Amino acid sequence: MTAIITKPEQSGELLLKLSRETVPTVDNSKILELRESGASKAHELAIPGRKDEEWQFTDLSQLWAIDFRAPQTVTIDKNALATFLLPEAKNSRIVFVNGIYQPELSDISALPPGVSVSNLANAQKDVLVNYLGKEKTPEFFTALNQAGLSDGAVIHVTANTVVTTPIHLLFITVVEEIPRFYQPHSLIVAETGASVNIIENYGALAEYCSDLPVNYSYFTNAVTEIYLEANAEVIHTRVQRESGDGFHIGRTIIEQGRDSRYTLNEINLGAKLCRHNLDILQKGEQTETNLHGLAMITGQQTTDTHSAIYLNHPHGIANQLHKCIVDGSAHAIFNGKVFVPKPAQLTNASQLNRNLLISNKARVNTKPELQITADNVKCSHGATVSQLEADDLFYLQSRGLSTDTARSLLIDAFSAEILAKIPLESLRQRLGQCVACRSVE
Predict the structure, then answer these.
(1) Could you write out the DSSP letters of every residue in 211-241?
(2) What are the pLDDT digits (tens) for 13-23?
(3) pLDDT at res. 74
(4) CA distance 108 to 126
(5) Is 301:330 a contact under the CB 8 Å cutoff?
(6) Which among 1, 8, 179, 393 could disulfide-bond with 47, CB atoms 3.0 to 4.6 Å apart, if both were Cys?
Protein backbone atom coordinates (compact mmCIF):
# COMPACT_ATOMS: atom_id res chain seq x y z
CA MET A 1 0.00 0.00 0.00
CA THR A 2 1.26 3.49 -0.88
CA ALA A 3 2.02 5.71 2.09
CA ILE A 4 -0.37 8.61 2.59
CA ILE A 5 1.14 12.02 1.97
CA THR A 6 0.19 14.49 4.68
CA LYS A 7 2.49 17.45 4.00
CA PRO A 8 1.41 19.95 1.32
CA GLU A 9 5.03 20.34 0.14
CA GLN A 10 5.31 16.62 -0.48
CA SER A 11 2.01 16.47 -2.29
CA GLY A 12 2.88 19.55 -4.35
CA GLU A 13 6.13 17.92 -5.45
CA LEU A 14 4.28 14.73 -6.34
CA LEU A 15 1.76 16.62 -8.48
CA LEU A 16 4.56 18.50 -10.21
CA LYS A 17 6.36 15.21 -10.86
CA LEU A 18 3.19 13.74 -12.38
CA SER A 19 2.82 16.87 -14.50
CA ARG A 20 6.33 16.55 -15.86
CA GLU A 21 5.79 12.86 -16.66
CA THR A 22 2.75 13.59 -18.80
CA VAL A 23 3.81 13.39 -22.46
CA PRO A 24 2.66 16.23 -24.76
CA THR A 25 0.50 15.22 -27.71
CA VAL A 26 2.38 17.61 -30.00
CA ASP A 27 6.06 18.30 -30.55
CA ASN A 28 5.94 22.09 -30.45
CA SER A 29 8.61 24.44 -29.15
CA LYS A 30 5.93 26.74 -27.67
CA ILE A 31 4.47 23.86 -25.63
CA LEU A 32 7.89 22.76 -24.40
CA GLU A 33 8.75 26.34 -23.45
CA LEU A 34 5.53 26.74 -21.47
CA ARG A 35 6.05 23.42 -19.69
CA GLU A 36 9.54 24.41 -18.57
CA SER A 37 8.35 27.85 -17.48
CA GLY A 38 5.40 26.35 -15.56
CA ALA A 39 7.63 23.85 -13.76
CA SER A 40 10.02 26.62 -12.75
CA LYS A 41 7.17 28.77 -11.41
CA ALA A 42 5.61 25.86 -9.52
CA HIS A 43 8.94 25.22 -7.79
CA GLU A 44 9.23 28.87 -6.77
CA LEU A 45 5.65 29.50 -5.63
CA ALA A 46 4.41 28.63 -2.16
CA ILE A 47 1.87 25.85 -1.75
CA PRO A 48 -1.54 27.43 -0.96
CA GLY A 49 -2.78 26.98 2.60
CA ARG A 50 -5.01 28.41 5.32
CA LYS A 51 -2.33 30.94 6.28
CA ASP A 52 -2.73 32.65 2.90
CA GLU A 53 -5.46 35.29 2.86
CA GLU A 54 -6.81 34.06 -0.49
CA TRP A 55 -7.17 30.52 0.89
CA GLN A 56 -7.98 31.13 4.55
CA PHE A 57 -11.48 29.61 4.37
CA THR A 58 -10.64 26.73 1.99
CA ASP A 59 -9.24 23.61 3.63
CA LEU A 60 -7.01 21.70 1.18
CA SER A 61 -5.84 19.10 3.71
CA GLN A 62 -8.00 16.35 2.17
CA LEU A 63 -6.48 17.06 -1.23
CA TRP A 64 -2.91 16.94 0.05
CA ALA A 65 -3.58 13.64 1.85
CA ILE A 66 -4.25 11.70 -1.38
CA ASP A 67 -1.54 9.94 -3.38
CA PHE A 68 -2.68 10.76 -6.93
CA ARG A 69 -1.52 8.91 -10.04
CA ALA A 70 -0.99 9.98 -13.63
CA PRO A 71 -4.00 9.76 -15.99
CA GLN A 72 -4.54 6.79 -18.27
CA THR A 73 -6.18 6.59 -21.66
CA VAL A 74 -9.68 5.15 -21.37
CA THR A 75 -11.95 4.13 -24.23
CA ILE A 76 -15.66 4.67 -23.67
CA ASP A 77 -18.69 3.94 -25.80
CA LYS A 78 -20.44 6.89 -27.43
CA ASN A 79 -23.72 5.85 -25.78
CA ALA A 80 -22.13 6.48 -22.39
CA LEU A 81 -22.15 10.21 -23.19
CA ALA A 82 -25.91 10.38 -23.66
CA THR A 83 -26.57 12.24 -20.43
CA PHE A 84 -23.94 14.87 -21.26
CA LEU A 85 -24.75 15.63 -24.91
CA LEU A 86 -26.71 18.74 -25.91
CA PRO A 87 -29.10 18.62 -28.91
CA GLU A 88 -28.23 22.19 -29.87
CA ALA A 89 -24.53 21.21 -30.13
CA LYS A 90 -24.78 17.62 -31.42
CA ASN A 91 -22.47 18.46 -34.36
CA SER A 92 -20.36 21.11 -32.65
CA ARG A 93 -18.62 19.43 -29.73
CA ILE A 94 -15.11 18.40 -28.78
CA VAL A 95 -14.70 15.70 -26.13
CA PHE A 96 -11.85 14.93 -23.74
CA VAL A 97 -11.88 11.82 -21.53
CA ASN A 98 -9.47 11.86 -18.58
CA GLY A 99 -7.91 14.95 -20.13
CA ILE A 100 -7.19 13.25 -23.47
CA TYR A 101 -8.78 14.26 -26.79
CA GLN A 102 -11.29 11.73 -28.20
CA PRO A 103 -11.79 12.37 -31.94
CA GLU A 104 -14.26 9.48 -32.31
CA LEU A 105 -16.56 11.10 -29.71
CA SER A 106 -16.18 14.62 -31.13
CA ASP A 107 -18.13 16.15 -34.01
CA ILE A 108 -17.62 19.66 -35.39
CA SER A 109 -19.31 19.18 -38.77
CA ALA A 110 -21.93 21.88 -38.11
CA LEU A 111 -19.44 24.70 -37.61
CA PRO A 112 -19.16 27.34 -40.36
CA PRO A 113 -16.00 28.56 -42.10
CA GLY A 114 -14.05 31.05 -40.03
CA VAL A 115 -14.06 28.99 -36.83
CA SER A 116 -11.69 26.17 -35.95
CA VAL A 117 -12.11 23.76 -33.04
CA SER A 118 -9.34 21.28 -32.31
CA ASN A 119 -6.97 19.91 -29.73
CA LEU A 120 -3.42 21.25 -29.27
CA ALA A 121 -1.91 18.83 -31.77
CA ASN A 122 -4.14 20.10 -34.60
CA ALA A 123 -4.32 23.78 -33.67
CA GLN A 124 -2.91 26.56 -35.81
CA LYS A 125 0.64 27.27 -34.73
CA ASP A 126 0.30 31.05 -34.93
CA VAL A 127 -2.69 30.93 -32.53
CA LEU A 128 -0.65 28.94 -30.00
CA VAL A 129 2.36 31.23 -30.37
CA ASN A 130 0.34 34.45 -30.01
CA TYR A 131 -2.10 33.46 -27.26
CA LEU A 132 -1.35 30.23 -25.38
CA GLY A 133 0.05 30.98 -21.93
CA LYS A 134 -0.08 34.72 -22.61
CA GLU A 135 -1.31 35.54 -19.10
CA LYS A 136 1.66 35.70 -16.71
CA THR A 137 0.12 36.17 -13.24
CA PRO A 138 1.85 33.63 -10.96
CA GLU A 139 -0.36 31.15 -9.10
CA PHE A 140 0.60 27.64 -8.00
CA PHE A 141 -2.18 25.60 -9.60
CA THR A 142 -1.97 27.56 -12.87
CA ALA A 143 1.78 26.94 -12.98
CA LEU A 144 1.14 23.26 -12.25
CA ASN A 145 -1.29 23.06 -15.17
CA GLN A 146 1.24 24.74 -17.44
CA ALA A 147 4.00 22.35 -16.32
CA GLY A 148 1.83 19.43 -17.38
CA LEU A 149 0.50 20.98 -20.59
CA SER A 150 -0.02 18.01 -22.90
CA ASP A 151 -3.43 18.24 -24.55
CA GLY A 152 -6.26 20.73 -24.60
CA ALA A 153 -9.06 22.40 -26.51
CA VAL A 154 -8.44 25.30 -28.89
CA ILE A 155 -11.25 27.43 -30.34
CA HIS A 156 -10.30 30.16 -32.80
CA VAL A 157 -12.93 32.47 -34.34
CA THR A 158 -11.60 34.70 -37.10
CA ALA A 159 -12.45 38.38 -37.50
CA ASN A 160 -16.13 39.27 -38.07
CA THR A 161 -17.26 35.63 -37.92
CA VAL A 162 -20.57 35.13 -36.13
CA VAL A 163 -20.98 31.54 -34.90
CA THR A 164 -24.67 30.91 -34.27
CA THR A 165 -24.18 27.23 -33.35
CA PRO A 166 -23.10 26.76 -29.70
CA ILE A 167 -19.76 24.98 -29.22
CA HIS A 168 -19.63 22.31 -26.52
CA LEU A 169 -16.36 21.61 -24.70
CA LEU A 170 -16.94 18.38 -22.81
CA PHE A 171 -14.42 17.14 -20.22
CA ILE A 172 -15.36 13.72 -18.84
CA THR A 173 -13.67 11.86 -15.99
CA VAL A 174 -14.09 8.10 -15.74
CA VAL A 175 -14.27 7.45 -12.00
CA GLU A 176 -12.16 4.53 -10.78
CA GLU A 177 -10.72 3.22 -7.54
CA ILE A 178 -7.21 4.59 -8.19
CA PRO A 179 -7.06 8.37 -7.59
CA ARG A 180 -6.02 10.15 -10.80
CA PHE A 181 -4.79 13.67 -11.58
CA TYR A 182 -6.10 15.50 -14.67
CA GLN A 183 -5.18 18.92 -16.07
CA PRO A 184 -7.51 20.13 -18.84
CA HIS A 185 -6.51 23.30 -20.68
CA SER A 186 -8.69 25.39 -22.99
CA LEU A 187 -7.78 28.32 -25.23
CA ILE A 188 -10.53 30.46 -26.78
CA VAL A 189 -9.73 33.34 -29.14
CA ALA A 190 -12.38 35.66 -30.62
CA GLU A 191 -10.85 38.07 -33.11
CA THR A 192 -12.16 41.56 -33.95
CA GLY A 193 -15.92 41.60 -34.45
CA ALA A 194 -16.31 37.85 -33.82
CA SER A 195 -19.16 36.31 -31.81
CA VAL A 196 -19.37 32.84 -30.27
CA ASN A 197 -21.32 30.86 -27.65
CA ILE A 198 -19.24 28.37 -25.61
CA ILE A 199 -20.40 25.67 -23.17
CA GLU A 200 -17.56 24.36 -20.98
CA ASN A 201 -18.76 21.24 -19.20
CA TYR A 202 -16.99 19.11 -16.55
CA GLY A 203 -18.64 15.82 -15.57
CA ALA A 204 -17.98 12.34 -14.22
CA LEU A 205 -18.85 8.95 -15.65
CA ALA A 206 -19.56 6.31 -13.00
CA GLU A 207 -21.59 3.15 -12.48
CA TYR A 208 -23.55 4.96 -9.79
CA CYS A 209 -25.00 8.45 -9.45
CA SER A 210 -21.89 10.61 -9.73
CA ASP A 211 -23.14 12.92 -6.97
CA LEU A 212 -22.77 10.14 -4.38
CA PRO A 213 -19.38 9.96 -2.61
CA VAL A 214 -17.98 6.40 -2.52
CA ASN A 215 -14.31 7.19 -1.77
CA TYR A 216 -13.17 7.14 -5.42
CA SER A 217 -11.19 10.39 -5.48
CA TYR A 218 -9.64 12.27 -8.39
CA PHE A 219 -8.35 15.78 -9.00
CA THR A 220 -9.17 18.06 -11.93
CA ASN A 221 -6.89 21.10 -12.22
CA ALA A 222 -8.31 23.12 -15.12
CA VAL A 223 -7.20 26.35 -16.80
CA THR A 224 -9.18 28.25 -19.45
CA GLU A 225 -7.81 31.25 -21.35
CA ILE A 226 -10.23 33.51 -23.24
CA TYR A 227 -9.10 36.43 -25.41
CA LEU A 228 -11.58 38.90 -26.91
CA GLU A 229 -10.25 41.38 -29.42
CA ALA A 230 -12.00 44.67 -30.25
CA ASN A 231 -15.79 44.47 -30.56
CA ALA A 232 -15.84 40.70 -30.03
CA GLU A 233 -18.52 38.88 -28.03
CA VAL A 234 -18.23 35.64 -26.06
CA ILE A 235 -21.11 34.03 -24.17
CA HIS A 236 -19.54 31.45 -21.89
CA THR A 237 -21.47 28.86 -19.85
CA ARG A 238 -19.34 26.88 -17.39
CA VAL A 239 -20.92 23.82 -15.74
CA GLN A 240 -19.06 21.90 -13.03
CA ARG A 241 -20.62 18.57 -12.06
CA GLU A 242 -17.68 16.51 -10.87
CA SER A 243 -18.38 13.43 -8.77
CA GLY A 244 -19.01 13.60 -5.03
CA ASP A 245 -15.43 12.44 -4.43
CA GLY A 246 -13.79 14.72 -6.96
CA PHE A 247 -11.61 17.77 -6.33
CA HIS A 248 -11.93 20.58 -8.86
CA ILE A 249 -9.67 23.62 -8.95
CA GLY A 250 -10.14 25.83 -11.98
CA ARG A 251 -8.91 29.15 -13.23
CA THR A 252 -10.51 31.19 -15.98
CA ILE A 253 -8.55 34.09 -17.44
CA ILE A 254 -10.34 36.62 -19.65
CA GLU A 255 -8.71 39.48 -21.53
CA GLN A 256 -11.09 41.96 -23.15
CA GLY A 257 -10.25 44.38 -25.94
CA ARG A 258 -12.03 47.66 -26.65
CA ASP A 259 -15.84 47.47 -27.05
CA SER A 260 -15.86 43.73 -26.34
CA ARG A 261 -18.62 41.91 -24.44
CA TYR A 262 -18.11 38.89 -22.21
CA THR A 263 -20.86 37.00 -20.36
CA LEU A 264 -20.27 34.10 -17.97
CA ASN A 265 -23.05 31.80 -16.73
CA GLU A 266 -21.43 29.58 -14.10
CA ILE A 267 -23.11 26.60 -12.41
CA ASN A 268 -21.30 24.64 -9.66
CA LEU A 269 -23.10 21.56 -8.37
CA GLY A 270 -20.50 18.81 -7.98
CA ALA A 271 -17.15 17.93 -6.37
CA LYS A 272 -16.20 17.37 -2.77
CA LEU A 273 -14.20 20.59 -3.05
CA CYS A 274 -14.50 23.13 -5.87
CA ARG A 275 -12.45 26.29 -6.20
CA HIS A 276 -12.79 28.63 -9.18
CA ASN A 277 -10.46 31.59 -9.66
CA LEU A 278 -11.83 34.07 -12.19
CA ASP A 279 -9.67 36.92 -13.50
CA ILE A 280 -10.97 39.50 -15.99
CA LEU A 281 -8.64 42.12 -17.41
CA GLN A 282 -9.92 45.10 -19.37
CA LYS A 283 -7.53 46.10 -22.16
CA GLY A 284 -9.54 48.87 -23.78
CA GLU A 285 -12.40 51.32 -23.35
CA GLN A 286 -16.10 50.52 -23.27
CA THR A 287 -15.89 46.85 -22.36
CA GLU A 288 -18.87 45.04 -20.88
CA THR A 289 -18.61 42.13 -18.43
CA ASN A 290 -21.57 40.18 -17.03
CA LEU A 291 -21.02 37.41 -14.47
CA HIS A 292 -23.89 35.17 -13.33
CA GLY A 293 -23.07 32.39 -10.86
CA LEU A 294 -24.98 29.69 -9.00
CA ALA A 295 -23.58 27.14 -6.55
CA MET A 296 -25.77 24.50 -4.92
CA ILE A 297 -24.07 22.19 -2.42
CA THR A 298 -24.95 19.82 0.39
CA GLY A 299 -23.40 17.19 2.66
CA GLN A 300 -19.71 17.95 3.27
CA GLN A 301 -19.17 19.85 0.01
CA THR A 302 -17.11 23.04 -0.24
CA THR A 303 -17.41 25.56 -3.07
CA ASP A 304 -15.19 28.62 -3.35
CA THR A 305 -15.44 31.36 -5.96
CA HIS A 306 -12.76 34.04 -6.14
CA SER A 307 -13.20 36.66 -8.86
CA ALA A 308 -11.24 39.76 -9.79
CA ILE A 309 -12.33 42.33 -12.38
CA TYR A 310 -9.74 44.90 -13.44
CA LEU A 311 -11.42 47.92 -15.04
CA ASN A 312 -8.46 49.88 -16.31
CA HIS A 313 -10.09 52.10 -18.97
CA PRO A 314 -12.99 54.59 -19.17
CA HIS A 315 -16.64 53.66 -19.79
CA GLY A 316 -16.33 50.08 -18.55
CA ILE A 317 -19.39 48.12 -17.43
CA ALA A 318 -19.29 45.18 -15.01
CA ASN A 319 -22.26 43.38 -13.46
CA GLN A 320 -21.89 40.39 -11.14
CA LEU A 321 -24.56 38.35 -9.38
CA HIS A 322 -23.43 35.22 -7.55
CA LYS A 323 -25.86 32.99 -5.63
CA CYS A 324 -25.19 30.09 -3.26
CA ILE A 325 -27.66 27.51 -1.94
CA VAL A 326 -26.06 25.67 0.99
CA ASP A 327 -27.54 22.61 2.71
CA GLY A 328 -26.29 19.94 5.11
CA SER A 329 -22.88 20.77 6.58
CA ALA A 330 -21.65 22.31 3.33
CA HIS A 331 -19.50 25.44 3.13
CA ALA A 332 -19.70 28.18 0.51
CA ILE A 333 -17.07 30.90 0.03
CA PHE A 334 -17.24 33.98 -2.16
CA ASN A 335 -14.64 36.70 -2.59
CA GLY A 336 -15.28 39.12 -5.44
CA LYS A 337 -12.98 42.04 -6.19
CA VAL A 338 -13.60 44.94 -8.53
CA PHE A 339 -10.68 47.30 -9.19
CA VAL A 340 -11.48 50.78 -10.51
CA PRO A 341 -8.23 52.80 -10.74
CA LYS A 342 -8.04 56.47 -11.65
CA PRO A 343 -7.92 55.96 -15.47
CA ALA A 344 -11.24 54.07 -15.32
CA GLN A 345 -13.48 57.13 -15.24
CA LEU A 346 -17.21 56.79 -15.99
CA THR A 347 -17.18 53.14 -14.96
CA ASN A 348 -20.47 51.45 -14.02
CA ALA A 349 -19.92 48.40 -11.81
CA SER A 350 -22.21 46.39 -9.54
CA GLN A 351 -21.57 43.26 -7.51
CA LEU A 352 -23.99 41.24 -5.36
CA ASN A 353 -23.59 37.91 -3.57
CA ARG A 354 -26.80 36.31 -2.25
CA ASN A 355 -26.70 33.21 -0.06
CA LEU A 356 -29.48 30.88 1.04
CA LEU A 357 -28.74 28.60 3.99
CA ILE A 358 -31.06 25.58 4.09
CA SER A 359 -29.79 23.88 7.26
CA ASN A 360 -28.52 25.02 10.64
CA LYS A 361 -25.07 23.51 9.94
CA ALA A 362 -24.58 25.19 6.55
CA ARG A 363 -21.88 27.89 6.44
CA VAL A 364 -20.96 30.77 4.17
CA ASN A 365 -18.06 33.23 4.12
CA THR A 366 -18.60 36.16 1.81
CA LYS A 367 -16.45 39.18 1.05
CA PRO A 368 -17.43 41.45 -1.86
CA GLU A 369 -14.81 44.15 -2.44
CA LEU A 370 -14.61 47.43 -4.35
CA GLN A 371 -11.30 49.24 -4.68
CA ILE A 372 -11.96 52.63 -6.26
CA THR A 373 -9.60 55.54 -6.90
CA ALA A 374 -11.48 57.02 -9.88
CA ASP A 375 -13.76 59.90 -8.87
CA ASN A 376 -16.45 59.80 -11.58
CA VAL A 377 -17.97 56.33 -11.35
CA LYS A 378 -21.18 54.51 -10.43
CA CYS A 379 -20.33 51.46 -8.32
CA SER A 380 -22.12 49.28 -5.78
CA HIS A 381 -21.53 46.02 -3.97
CA GLY A 382 -23.19 43.92 -1.29
CA ALA A 383 -23.97 40.52 0.17
CA THR A 384 -26.93 38.86 1.85
CA VAL A 385 -27.17 35.68 3.93
CA SER A 386 -30.62 34.34 4.76
CA GLN A 387 -32.71 31.24 5.38
CA LEU A 388 -36.08 30.24 3.97
CA GLU A 389 -38.62 32.67 5.33
CA ALA A 390 -41.15 31.10 7.70
CA ASP A 391 -43.85 33.47 6.41
CA ASP A 392 -43.25 32.39 2.82
CA LEU A 393 -43.42 28.71 3.77
CA PHE A 394 -46.60 29.32 5.78
CA TYR A 395 -48.22 31.20 2.89
CA LEU A 396 -47.59 28.35 0.44
CA GLN A 397 -48.72 25.73 2.97
CA SER A 398 -51.89 27.69 3.55
CA ARG A 399 -52.59 27.24 -0.18
CA GLY A 400 -52.53 23.47 0.23
CA LEU A 401 -48.88 22.70 -0.55
CA SER A 402 -46.87 20.29 1.56
CA THR A 403 -43.82 21.51 3.49
CA ASP A 404 -41.43 19.79 1.07
CA THR A 405 -43.19 21.20 -2.00
CA ALA A 406 -43.23 24.71 -0.55
CA ARG A 407 -39.56 24.43 0.32
CA SER A 408 -38.70 23.23 -3.21
CA LEU A 409 -40.65 26.04 -4.84
CA LEU A 410 -38.78 28.68 -2.85
CA ILE A 411 -35.39 27.13 -3.66
CA ASP A 412 -36.30 26.84 -7.35
CA ALA A 413 -37.34 30.49 -7.40
CA PHE A 414 -34.03 31.52 -5.81
CA SER A 415 -32.02 29.64 -8.47
CA ALA A 416 -34.23 30.49 -11.45
CA GLU A 417 -32.75 33.98 -11.89
CA ILE A 418 -29.35 32.46 -12.77
CA LEU A 419 -30.57 29.39 -14.66
CA ALA A 420 -32.67 31.63 -16.91
CA LYS A 421 -29.45 33.21 -18.22
CA ILE A 422 -28.27 29.92 -19.78
CA PRO A 423 -28.77 30.27 -23.55
CA LEU A 424 -29.43 26.56 -24.32
CA GLU A 425 -32.92 25.27 -23.55
CA SER A 426 -31.85 21.64 -23.08
CA LEU A 427 -29.09 22.54 -20.63
CA ARG A 428 -31.35 24.95 -18.78
CA GLN A 429 -33.98 22.23 -18.29
CA ARG A 430 -31.41 19.61 -17.29
CA LEU A 431 -29.85 21.82 -14.63
CA GLY A 432 -33.27 22.92 -13.43
CA GLN A 433 -34.23 19.28 -12.90
CA CYS A 434 -31.02 18.72 -10.97
CA VAL A 435 -31.74 21.67 -8.69
CA ALA A 436 -35.31 20.48 -8.16
CA CYS A 437 -34.07 16.97 -7.31
CA ARG A 438 -31.61 18.28 -4.75
CA SER A 439 -34.11 20.64 -3.16
CA VAL A 440 -36.31 17.72 -2.00
CA GLU A 441 -33.47 15.62 -0.52
Answers:
(1) TS--S--EEEEEEEEEEE-TT-EEEEEEEEE
(2) 878 888 887 87
(3) 85
(4) 21
(5) yes
(6) 8
